[in-house]
Design a protein that fits this description.
By secondary structure, the protein is an alpha+beta fold. The protein is built from two helices and six strands, in the order E-H-E-E-E-E-E-H.
Length: 96
């Protein structure tokens, strides 16, 4: 069982790992830049069970499923901002 995630918080993936750990109640350690901004200016949000990366100057969204126990990242969707908005609404409707 995963006990703790330690990350430097420098990239979107590092920060996503910290965000997922916080959401799941897993202990975290390490350091994250002020304002939780990555050096590459990529941001990520954990929307269970997906981690959503904002890339390309906030023009695109990459919807991923991260399996930390397997050390794998699966890309589920690559969407424009508008496509992501439509996908997000449809996804929330199916989760009710």
């Amino acid at each position: 069982m995963l006990e703790k995630i330690v990350s430097g918080g420098q990239s979107g993936v590092d920060r996503a790992a910290l965000d997922a750990a916080i959401a799941l109640g897993i202990a975290i350690g390490g350091w994250c830049p002020r304002g939780r901004l990555a050096a590459n200016r990529c941001s990520a949000d954990y929307v269970p069970p997906y981690t959503i990366f904002d890339v390309g100057g906030n023009k695109y969204r990459i919807v991923t499923a991260i399996h930390y126990n397997r050390r794998k990242v699966y890309i589920r969707h690559v969407l424009t901002h508008a496509e992501y908005d439509r996908w997000s609404v449809a996804y929330r409707r199916t989760k009710r």
